[in-house]
Write a structure and sequence with these properties.
single chain; mainly beta; 22-stranded antiparallel barrel; 6-stranded mixed sheet; 4 helices; 44 strands; about 60% strand
């Protein structure tokens, strides 16, 4: 299966072990007679916790070189059958001396009686890197039988609400990256994609709370980077997956071919799913005299289909230069059967008017993405150049036919009116990006880059109302059309240097943006040109073996998309409207985070206090007029401030019980005095997540997930408490070539949702229930030789990160 959002050539690199830093260890292994020892095993372990972080095998000449090591203290063990092993300790890598040469290592011949060898290895569930936290997810039961949303719900730091919206630390302005590059999808299209993308394609999830200036600055609370599985080996290899359950099913397949300098990847898949949702709203109109009420019930039953495919290639031109390209696409389409009942009530709750609106609703999302790039690597993460051109197109369309009748029960009643709605939006973007890394002396490194992008979004909407239903000409014909042009030019500089145990990274990104939003129906145009500067600082310090501290600051931005800007939105619901605000300005966030981590014998513990302030923040504002019509729109508020802390702990794999959990507590202070004090206020929020994993047998893994969030105060109202839970099992068969997964979401039926809003104009209570209790069974089979690690590198957008630690026991 292929992800349309993945830029060119990245799938061929994403899962290969990635260098973590500038450090390297090398040497020559010989026997007592001075003859080279080939195929000796070299294992590098951190001295702080004895965790193996890298390994290598000596060449025919007896030489080895382990690269990509983070700076720190290591021990190296060299062994070969028939020889006594050698261990070297106290090997220290620093910015001033990032490379250690062990010289000649002599192995003495030793007789070894071998009756049998049993080896097992477990990847650490959580790896704490200098700028991110890495969660290994590929072995989770949810990561084979579920979707990307199921995987993200199992990551402690990531929140996914009942509608599939992703947030970090209480804020939904999260940048979703795929293999280190921003996804071209936004809003509902991105949510729909994550809800259907198969989890079996995901290797790990990386949470970057305070990205450096090297990253694109969008995403106020940070980046969630989804890294996909894509190993390749000499020859032909691949995998097949089939999945089915009460909410749908599907299948996908992948092929990888590597020979000499050429690497090819191809994949495709499809799936079908079902959704069921019901809701109830009760709203009092306080502006009417006497006060009236609206009692509204709805039901939405949907069926959707998902298709995807890709083809990518990588050609190694020389030892240092590589050319890569790719073409990817996906399409999601669905049909929804909608029924909404309305009752307008007087103060005594007697119906003044009753009717229903029902009909089919259809939607489509599609993405095409292509890219071409060149990469030259003289020394990994020390001397590199990457140039990439990327073009993508995505579209969204909806088609509604709503009929109005006196009652849902009276199917013979004549239709009072028919409402036809048609919406089509398209976005096209072309970008050029160049990234350069170069050493400035022994301990100083420079990163520099440029990105230019042109993006155009267009939308066309039409709403026709035929009353009576059989009328030839519409009684109402509303049309809307917009064009949103955005042009960006940005450049960044980033310097990194080590001072003993202290690591310093400082950078700045400057950007010029020119935007125009035009309403084609009226000819109105709204220009907004602005210049932004985004500084970043990251300080890391080794307090003691197994204890690290990281202090980081960054400035980020969220730009209003056409969804937030368009005020001319025809509505199929006469009592509930949504309108954008073309005068919205970008909002900026200043963020400071502190991470304190302890590596213990049983696992890891991390405390992360933070402070975040957003200026020119925008939010939903609901207005209700005297006729009872509710309009949701957006306004720039004065500021939004949040401060709190998260505590995350993980148990080291290897025993029967492992997993991780977290507790998050934060206070949010909203200042909306520029609009009205009724939108200002503060509230304390907290949530807890527990994800235990249990190894029942050597081939059977069990996993549970429980996430709880209490009721929260929001602008103009309150959201109810909610609970998410899941249970999964993964049974390996035929070694590691095949496995069966069983995944149950919301097994106890605890997921439900209630929302209350109130102000001087209205009081409203909304309740929703979902088809959340689902079961899914999947089967995966892989073929070909087991993939071998290669020296391929992640794209330069993705900064250095440690290779996930692999404790061996």
């Amino acid at each position: 299966l292929v992800l349309a959002c993945v830029p060119a050539g990245l799938r061929a690199q994403a899962a290969a072990p990635t260098p973590a830093g500038p450090g390297s260890i090398l040497g020559l292994v010989v026997d007592d007679g001075g003859r080279p020892v080939a195929a000796a095993t070299v294992v590098v372990r951190r001295e702080a916790d004895s965790v193996a972080v890298a390994d290598a095998v000596t060449s025919a000449s007896g030489r080895f070189r382990v690269t990509g090591l983070a700076l720190g203290r290591y021990a190296v063990r060299i062994a070969h059958l028939g020889y006594a092993p050698q261990t070297r300790t106290g090997i220290t890598l620093t910015q001033a001396a990032p490379s250690a040469d062990l010289g000649v290592v002599r192995l003495a011949v030793a007789a070894v009686a071998v009756e049998g060898i049993e080896v097992s290895a477990e990847q650490a569930a959580v790896v704490l890197a200098p700028d991110r936290n890495i969660y290994q997810t590929k072995d989770m039961p949810a990561a084979s039988a579920g979707t990307a949303v199921d995987v993200l719900r199992n990551v402690p730091e990531v929140d996914v609400d009942v509608n599939g919206k992703v947030s970090l630390r209480g804020n939904g302005s999260v940048a979703i990256h795929i293999n280190g590059r921003p996804s071209p999808l936004k809003g509902d299209a991105l949510t729909n994609f994550l809800q259907q993308f198969p989890a079996s394609r995901i290797e790990r999830v990386e949470v970057i709370p305070n990205p450096s200036a090297k990253f694109d600055p969008e995403g106020m609370v940070g980046i969630v980077n989804i890294v996909l599985k894509n190993n390749a080996d000499l020859g032909l290899s691949g995998s097949l997956t089939a999945r089915g359950g009460n909410a749908g099913g599907g299948g996908n397949g992948r092929l990888a071919y590597q020979r000499g300098a050429l690497t090819l990847f191809a994949g495709g898949g499809s799936s079908a799913s079902r959704s069921r949702q019901s809701g109830h709203d009760f709203r009092q109109n306080l502006l009417a005299s006497p006060v009236t009420s609206l009692d509204q019930s709805s039901r939405r039953n949907g069926d959707s289909r998902f298709y995807s495919g890709d083809l990518s290639a990588e050609l190694r031109l020389s030892k240092e230069a590589t050319l890569y390209s790719a073409f990817n696409g996906f399409r999601s389409e669905g049909d929804m059967d909608v029924l909404t009942s309305y009752a307008l009530l007087d103060p005594q709750q007697v119906a003044l008017e009753q009717y229903v609106r029902r009909g089919p609703s259809g939607y489509t999302y599609d993405v095409l993405d292509a890219s071409l790039g060149f990469r030259r690597v003289v020394k990994p993460q020390q001397d590199e150049l990457t140039i990439e051109v990327r073009a993508n197109r995505n579209g969204e369309g909806t088609d509604d036919r709503m009929t109005k009748a006196p009652s849902a029960a009276d199917t013979d009643a004549p239709e009072g009116e028919v409402t036809l709605g048609d919406v089509d939006t398209r976005t096209r973007e072309v970008s050029l990006q160049a990234d350069y890394t170069h050493p400035l002396g022994a301990s100083l490194r420079l990163d520099a880059g440029y990105k230019g992008a042109l993006r155009r979004s267009t939308g066309d909407s039409r709403l026709e109302v035929f009353a009576p239903a059989g009328a030839v000409a519409p009684a109402q014909d509303a049309r809307s059309a917009f064009t949103h042009d955005e042009r960006f030019h940005s450049a960044y500089l980033l310097l990194q240097r080590g001072f003993g145990k202290l690591g310093v990274q400082a950078g700045v990104r400057a950007e010029r943006a020119a935007t125009t939003f035009e309403l084609r129906r009226t000819g109105e145009a709204f220009d907004n040109d602005y210049t932004s500067v985004f500084p970043s600082v990251n300080l890391s310090y080794d307090l003691a073996p197994g204890r690290q501290a990281r202090l980081a600051y960054s400035k980020r931005i969220e730009r209003p998309t056409s969804f937030y800007l368009n005020p001319d939105v025809p509505s199929t619901d006469p009592l509930n409207r949504m309108a954008g605000n073309p005068y919205l300005k970008p909002k900026y966030t200043h963020s400071v985070t502190l991470d304190l981590s302890w590596t213990l014998a049983a696992g890891t513990l991390r405390l992360s206090p933070y402070w975040r302030r957003t200026v020119d923040n925008w939010d939903w504002v609901k207005l209700v007029d005297s006729a009872g019509v509710s309009t949701m729109t957006f306004r720039n508020l004065a500021s939004l401030e949040a401060y709190g802390a998260t505590i995350t702990g993980s148990l080291r794999p290897g025993g029967r019980l492992s997993g991780f959990g977290s507790l998050a507590v934060y206070r949010q202070v909203r200042d909306a005095s520029n609009i009205s004090t009724q939108f200002s206020g503060s509230a304390l929020h907290w949530s807890a997540t527990l994800t235990p994993m249990f190894k029942a047998t050597s081939s059977l893994d069990l996993q549970g997930m429980l996430r709880y969030s209490p009721a929260q105060d929001l602008p103009q109202g309150k959201i109810s408490a909610w609970v998410m839970s899941s249970i999964g099992a993964k049974q390996r068969i035929s070694g590691n070539r095949a496995w069966v997964n069983l995944y149950l979401n919301d097994p106890f039926g605890l997921m439900r949702f209630e929302f209350t809003t109130r102000d001087a104009t209205h009081v409203q209570t909304s309740r929703s229930t979902f088809m959340s209790r689902t079961v899914s069974l999947s089967f995966t089979y892989s073929f070909g030789r087991a993939p071998q690690p290669t020296a391929r590198r992640q794209p330069t957008e993705q900064p250095e990160q440690p290779q996930p630690a692999v404790p061996i026991h």
